[in-house]
Each structure stands twice: as C-alpha cells, then as structure tokens.
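Components:
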Amino acid sequence: MSSATPSAPEASAGLFSRTKAIPAVGPILVLLAFCLVFAITNPRFLAPHNQSIILQQTIVVGTLAIGQTLVILTAGIDLAVGAICVLGTIVAGKLVLLGYDPVLSMLFAVSLCTLSGFVAGALVSRLDLPPFIVTLGTLGILTAALRLISKGGAFPVQDDFLGLTGNTFRVGSFVLTYGVIAMLLLYAIVWYLLNETRWGRHLYAIGNNPEAARLVGIPVRLHLLQVYALAGLIYGITAWLALGRIPNADPNALQTANLDSITAVVIGGTSLFGGRGGLVGTLIGALIVGVLRNGLTLAGIDPLWQDLVTGILVIVAVAFDQLSRRRR
Amino acid sequence: MSALAAKPQPGNTVRVVLEARKIVKSYGHVVALDGVDFDLRAGEILAVVGDNGAGKSTLIKTLTGAVVPDSGEILLDGQLVHFKGPLDARHRGIETVYQDLAVAPALDIPSNLFLGRELLSSGILGSVFRRLDKRRMREGAAAAMAELKFRLPSINSLVENLSGGQRQGVAVARAAVFASKLVIMDEPTAALGVRETGQVLELIRAIRDRGLPVVLISHNMPNVFDLADRICIMRLGRRAAVVSPKTHTMADVVGIMTGAIKVEGG
Amino acid sequence: MQTSHHDRSRYALSQLTAGCAVFAIAFGLAGAIGVSYAQADDVIVGLVTKTEVNPFFVKMRQAAEAEAKTKGLKLIARAGKFDGDNEGQVAAIEDLISAGAKGILVTPNNSSGMLGVIKKARDAGVLVIALDTATDPADAVDATFATDNFQAGVQQGAYAKAALGDKKPVIAMLDGTPGGTVDTFRHNGFLKGFGIAEGDPAIAGAAITNGAQDKGQVGMENLLSKNGDINVVYTINEPAAAGGYQALKSFGKEKDVVLTSIDGGCAGVRNVKAGIIAATVMQFPYKMASMGVDAVADYAASGKKPTGFVNTGSYLITDKPMPGLDSKDSAWGLQNCWGD
Ligand SMILES: Nc1ncnc2c1ncn2[C@@H]1O[C@H](COP(=O)(O)OP(=O)(O)OP(=O)(O)O)[C@@H](O)[C@H]1O
Ligand SMILES: [Mg+2]
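Structure:
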C-alpha cells in the first residue's frame, strides 16, 4: 500500500486541472447561451455600441459585487453595500458643493466608506456578531443618516474630477468609459489578491473551515477585519464610479444594490456557505444580469421576465452548490 | 522544506524532548488536569490512553499552546517554555494533528499542507507582490508525500475529494513536514475504517523512523500495542502509570485506566 | 487516481449538464421572443416610469399601450425598481436607445439624475418627453407633459381656505418626501392657494409620509398630539390622506377638520364621495401617456417635435363645492380616475 509514489505534478496537470483554472464554467456557459439567443433575435444586440452599454451598466453593481464576493467567501453577507456607496457619493458631492477640493473630497469620502466597512468588520470579528445583523444595522443607520444630511433630496454633482470616470474613449468601434477600465482593473487586482497571495489563500481557508485556519495560526479575526475594510474601500471607489455614470447624489439610490450584488455573486457560483467560488464567476454573474435586462429590452419583452429568469438562475446556482456540497 | 531535513537525533533513547510538571487546568468546577506529569523521549512513539474525560485532549492542548494551564511548567529540550497560542508551539517545532480534522476541504493538497506557511516566489515577485510560489509548494507536497510513502491520487486534488484516510494523511503529513521537535496526534484514526487506519499508522511509523518522537492519543488498544514504545495511562486528570507494551498486557492497561488495578506513584 | 479524477469529471459533467439545461431554457425563451419580437421596421416608443407598481404608472402604461396600438407603434415599457432607482432608469433609456426607439417617454425619478442619458438619447435623434415630472433644467427634454403641480397645490389650498371660512386656521402638512420636485411644488402651491407663506404661525407642523398610508397615519397622530386645534390638513396624496383620516378619527376630530389632497386615484375619489376627504385635485396620467405616444407618432411621420411645458390639466373634485372655485363632483371623478 505504501509502495506507490505520488504522481508527479506535471503528469496530473491534465484535463481536470485545466477545468480548475476556469472555475466558472457553468456561469460562462449561461452567459454565452443568453448572448447567442439575444444575438439571434436582434442583431442590434451585438453592435459594439450596445456591448459597451452593457459593460457600462454593469459598473456599479459589478464593482460592488467585488466587495460582496470577499465578504461572502468568509461565509458572511453584506447588506450595506449600496448604503456605503451612497454615503460616498453624498459626502463627496456635498463637500465639493461646499467648495472643497474635489480630489480631497473624494479621498475623504472613500476613507469614510472604508471606515464604515472597518467598523462593520470590527463588530463582526471582535464581538462575533452575525454579519447579517451587523450589515443590516449599518444599512439602517446610513440610510437614515444620509436622508438627514441631504434632507431627503437628491442633488446634481457637477464636477470634472468627480465625473471623471464617466469620460469616454474609443477602442476601435467600442466606446468605453474610464469607469469600465477602473472596474476591470479592480477585478484584476482583487483576483490577484485572492488567487496568488497568502492573504487570499487564508481568506478561502477561513471561509471554508475557520477552526482549521485558527489552528494553523492564521489570525482569523484580523483577517475578517481586513476583509470588511477592504470591501468598504471598494464600495467607496464604486461611489466615484457611480458619480461618473450618473452625476447625481441621491440618498434614495441603490436601494437594491445589496440584493443585486448578492445575485451576481451567487449566479457566479460562489457559495453562500463561504470558502468556495471566486471573482471570475462574479464578473460573469454581473454580466449575465446586465445582458438579460438589455437583451430583453431589445427584444421588446416585458422586463419583469428579467427578474423571473434571474430568480430561476439564483435558485439553480444555490441548488447546484448545495448538491455538490452534499455529495462530499 | 528545510523542516523535512530534520534528520534522526543521536540514538540516545533516554533523552527527554518534552517534559511537563504538575500541570493543572480546570474549567469552572471541572478539574480537567489535576497535577499531571508527562515526559516524551527522543525517537519514541508514546501512546496516551484513558477513559473519556480523563483529560487526554486537555493535556495535549496545554502542550501545543491551544490551552494555557492554570499552573505547572513545560520544558522543551530542558528549557522552560510558555506557549500563549498554537503558533508559539509551532514556532518551537511542535506540530499537532487534531481530533477534528484541521483541513480546509475546498483547498487542494499543497494549499492544505502549507496552510499558514505558504511559500512565496523568490525575488521582487515574492517580496513586493507577495506572490505564492505554487509550483514549489506542489513539488514540496509531492516530495513530502513520497518521503512518507503516502499514496495519494493526484497532488492537485481538492482535499474534499479524498477519502477519510487520505484526508487524515494530509493532516498528518503537514505535521510531519513542519515538525522539528515532535508531533502530537489526538485520535487521528477515530473516524477511519480498518484499511484507512492502516494507512495512517503506517504514516506514524514513517515519522518515527525519520527520528521525530510522536505522542499518540488513541482508544484503540490493538493499535496502541502495535505501535507504541511506551504507554502513558491517564485517569481522572492524573497520570496513573507509564508502562511498556512489552511488559504489560492490554488487560493490565485497561485495568489501570478504569482503576481496577492500583499503581503506586504514577 | 480513481477517486479524484472520477469526482472531478463528475463535477465537470454536471456543470456541463447544467449549462446545457440553461441552453435549453434560453432557446425556449428565444421561441417566446421570436413570437413577440418587434419587426425591424416597427416604430418603437419607449416608456420609462418610476416603478412598476404604483397605480398611477400602471394607468400611464395601459394608456400608452392602448394608444400605441391604435397608432401602430411598438411600445416597450420599462421602470425603475424603486423610487430613487436612477441607475435602473438610466439603464432603461440606454437600452431603449440601443433598441432603436424613435421616442422615449420618461417620468424621471429625480430631476437632475437623468440629464446625461437624456442628452445621449437626443443626440442620437431620439425624441424625449418628460411625463409627470419635469427635468431641471426643464429644456433638457424636448417637451414636458405633466400636471402643473404648483397649480394643483394652489387649487387644493384655495379650497381649504374657502371651506374653512373665517375660522382661525391651524394647518397640518402631511408632506411626501422632502426635497422631491413634485413634493415641493404641491407644498408651495398649497401655501400660495391658502394665502400664507412658509413659516407662517398658522402651520402647526409637518410630517414626512413618503406618500404612504401608514406613515400618513403616524404623522397625523403625532401632529395631533402636538396640537389638538388642527383644523386644516394638507396631504401630498390620497393614501397619505387616508392615513391622516384614520388618525383624525381616533382623536374624534374627523368632523372638524378640512382634509384635502391631490392625485385623483379612484380610491381617493371614493373617499371624497364617502366624505372622508373634503376635496382632492385630480391629475390625468392617461392623458400624459397618450399625448406622449401621439407626439412620438407625429415625430416619426413628420419629424415635428413638441416643445415646452404642456399642462395636462387638473380638476378639483368635491361634493361640497365652494362658490368661486371650479370643481367637478365625485361621480365625474369616478369616471375619470386612475387605479382601482
Ligand atoms: N472547553 C472546555 N470547557 C469545559 N470543560 C471542558 C472543556 N474541555 C474539556 N473539558 C472537560 O475536561 C475534562 C477532560 O476533557 P478531555 O477532553 O481532556 O478528555 P479526553 O480524555 O480527551 O476525553 P475523550 O476521550 O472523550 O476525548 C472533561 O470532563 C471535559 O468535560
Ligand atoms: Mg479527547
């Protein structure tokens, strides 16, 4: 029994380690399927203009979903994503209105968002409060505070720097905004963190088996704190991207961003039980939602179908996750 | 991987690697350890047996820093040590395989083997970009498994796709790879079938043969007698006796464990 | 080798099966789309409302659908998910531009949030008409078809003043969402019609209702606790008024107070008939929508664009008319109201 030596790494790097390299096979197939259908039903769908529109529409929820992915990978959940992002837009917008330097205003707003994440992280990691409750509380507090600050009203944010990420440039016949690039860049950076560094490895271990992580000496609490703070930072940057898309600070905006981002994460194949999944899936998940909405409109179909199909996909994804876990 | 190079110590079998004196630990009214003494000699497999609740796990946890004793002292290679957490003990070369598997099932074998001690790339990629050296970890894991002669499907498998014995094998190998002083195992075969238990026992021998002493907690008497050089018998939070499997029978050991046979000193 | 590769391949296989299943669903959907898919030469008119659920917007959508049918246009209706869903409305307009809409009718969630995308639409040659809510600046769109909410507020205020007679006014304001465009116009219009200024001591207090019945009730209760002499109540809409009435009743004051409102929803008009609300000011969502669709049809046919603010009108509905104030009775109201 002990005579056979383990197979060499090279020999085993066959077909299946390659499937491991593309963790989001299912979501990618789904995305391709929808693209194919919409391309057939309306040729306008594939027009470069329309493709760039879909990308731009994905920016806000897509970027928020990066933070949401990190939190969900720790087996947590973040209901305050939208509220923290709106905090960023309103604080930055208000400060600029008051005549402060736009760059400093945005930096301050982003720091405030990071702080919000940090506080939530501290409550989760130090007091062992359930993330659901902590972020639900954060959501309530921020929503009320923001309505108080802005007296319930939205206001336009007319500033070149704050609106910078909405500026466009051409790549061939594609018109892209800096916001799209910023989103993709954030995806790349956080993907690297998750997949190529110790920090990411430890994050997966914590989500997968926190006790094991603790026993091998990973500072679990500190790590959780870092995750929530980093998520807050990402929501703050999203605030900047959101102002580029809609130059308007509105305390009533992004009310469904928490559920929308969770939807993207779940459709992307990340497990709500933590420790499994990744960012590629999340990006695909966000695109699936965007493609559905855009494609159904182009096809002239009632967009309520979007919610219906999205709902089915969420259930399929979660059921799939549950089944594959049960088998183990 | 330098840890693997920790080769056999000089054949002096009476040298004590780890010693504990008068360890006390209570949980509220429950006195889990009531002044336990303990010693582990170089190159041996020391079995720790005892009834449920005798204090085996608690004793082991004080030795690995997972529990801080109320009083008593611990000496490693004759030096007094104070472990404040599992990390302290690990830094001193003590590795533990816990009763409940301390692996992350969704990660692959190398990630689990190197969990908490991942290798970084050399040069700027490692120092600035903190990049994991996945290839070196994979090779290291494969080499470790080969050295321990442990059979695994593929080094890239996710741990959740392994059998129970193979999973435990990963946990044991992790301890073996990084231990420089000793390895502690708390019922490593409790959840395993006959064949899988065999695999893990084989591993434990391989570790001893490399010169690392092993502390093994087990309820399985045949295994204990098959493997152990000495047997430490716990009863009611104390060490009741230390016996050799060569001079005592299983009935003797069970008798001491349950209190049917009284022993002097302990 | 066996276990792991077997597991992996089973995993890959099940992913593949799931993928194929989705393909099947997708093609099923494609079948459905194929039936209803707009012909390339259809003239598309887009309607983007604030939400799907508000009966006001439901009426608007029904009217637009009916009118589009008679004019032979293809209507694509979209909406935000909640009040304040600027992102959703912007995406809807972008999608409609992509779909090749000839004209887009929009009830902007917020008067400034849509400006960028509206400009994009107009630059692309799309006729954009704001319905119900004007943009800021108003000329960001080609035209606005809406109730003059300030005028409607004036009608409400003037009625309240007349109905109160020469009693000393003590006024409660059940506002909607402070800062909202419509909210501000109605609120200020009411004060103008009543003949007082903001901050007048006659105003006993204000409460935020978000236009919802439950919050209207709580707000009114609080205001009544604060000041029991309240005898005039302004409400942002009829649900808020219904909530306010509940509170008045529990304080036993429903007979002594002039409760007024705005909107013209059928439930509100029934409340006028029942004597719960003294008077309401009706607006006409179906007019906004059908006029909007007509304008797009015109534009598609002749290239002619409407301009400026077009008041779709507002009528005072009451069964206790006041001399000197034009009004219609609740029977007329019930024939012309929206919602159910
Ligand atoms: N964290 C704890 N809190 C309270 N009591 C504890 C704790 N850990 C152990 N004990 C108690 O200490 C005593 C010794 O427990 P321990 O786990 O060391 O026994 P054991 O010999 O390992 O038993 P088993 O064979 O069941 O694993 C028991 O009475 C147990 O209930
Ligand atoms: Mg135990």
